[in-house]
Amino acid sequence: MKQLLPVLLIGVSFYAYAQQDPYYTHFKDVMQAYNPAAAGNEVGKICLSGLTHHQWRDFDDNTKVRGREGDPFYADQNEDILNVAPVTYNLNVGTVFKLSKDSTKFLGAGLTIIDDKVSYIKSTTVMANLNFKMDFQGGFNQISAGIGLGGTQWGFDRPDFKSREPNDPKVPLSGGNEMKLDLNAGVMYRQQRLGPFKDFYAGLSFTNVNSPSYNVMIGQTTVQRDFVPHTYTIVGADYHLPSGNIVLEPAMLVKYSTLLSNTEGFPAQIDLNVTALYAQTLRGGIAFRQFATSDAASLLIGYVKGPLQVGYAYDITLSNLQSVSNGTHEIMVKYCIPIVTKDPPPPIIRLTPRWL
To answer: 206, 186 in Cβ contact below 8 A?
Structure first.
């Protein structure tokens, strides 16, 4: 059984066609990461959001044979290999530019960087996002459509496997990667009020639109990885309780991936999230994630102070991985910087006797 796990890790990572994009418990705070139409929040501000997601903590690989290659009886063979659990970092920067004098047309622009590592496999994405926003009914509702253009580098980052058979060509001993063009697209709709709800929003987006295919040389083996398009649907709004001090913030995200070559699909991942903001300062809530079966339940806490937002989420693993996982930790920080502009000083007029 111990010999099977490294093979499964490599095989699943190489050839799996299931959902490949990282996921976020704070998905409504980093929408730009998967929907370019969400880039840019407000004219006159540059907003930054950063997130770190440490999944399945203390999930280690105790199957690797350390020491001399091909020697399963080496003294240190039972030493665990740490830090093989998935780790994701995400950074978003965005702003909005006014395009019309009547303040109905805007250009949203942003930059997204995603670094995702699963065991020894790592992908890094840099994406430039642009969108066109248009207000209707005096800003009561808004429609935006955008594209993301960038590149993703995928490959092995310093693999540390050891083969039981010397020079086994199927076990990578050195790293390698390849970068390919990556395209995203999306639309967003916002409305100030929808029935009892305020600040309603809905979005539809697609990542990996061009289905990039990677062929990476790892030692004597060529590893192929095909990225498939992912579809994201998000809906959310705010509900102000009669007390006036508490605002409920429900949201739902559905992520689905499919192959373009046929009609084969995969189970949709559904994220349900509801937080409560008290006195515009303290935030707390719960979330639930399902992927084929129940995947995780989450506890969220946060703090808001003007342009600063800080959030923490702890995911309790509900799947069979709970036997080897101590849960998932996620930290999110968001800050909006006002763009201060000064009017040009008035011209200085000096009177002289010549022009009195």
So the answer is: yes
